[in-house]
Please model this.
Amino acid sequence: MPEIATQPFTGTYRASPVPSTFAFKIRHSGTFWFRGVMPEAEATLRAGDDGLVLEGAAKVESISVFEPAELRAHLLAPDFFEAERHPEVSFRSTDLRLDDGGCLDLDGELTIKGITRPIKATGHWTGPRQAAFGEIVGLSLRASFDRREFAFDWQAEMPDGGDAVGWEVDLEVDLLLMPKAP
Model:
């Protein structure tokens, strides 16, 4: 990684819910990517003398998938998110490093179904810059994890062999952040 950037942000920024996305994808049937989003999510980036902290949470019940309603119901059930007992997926960074070229490395903790595990993400950052509606900052993060680490153990075997659902989940988070009003 190139040289660490000087602290480019000060204060607290909140993600704008319209352009920001909290998404995941996972291999299905060994042939295609199954995708979903959690549109009811929020994120905050705090910048201070002690560095940067990114925190966020998404409402599990808001999960949107491009499949029949039965599949969405299965994702909300105990085999997967267990939404009634665990209504949120949350994240908090423990170390966020930016370089002058716009790359970022992030270490943090991801909590799903009441289980917290360390996670690493990489991505890009831009800003702060002035837009027509005020100052903005952009963060784009990518991370992967084995879903079994969060008790997502459900599996079915394909008729010709192999798993119906992959074990590796890819997270894709894109944030447009704006200064939080005092």
In short: Helices lie at 69-76.
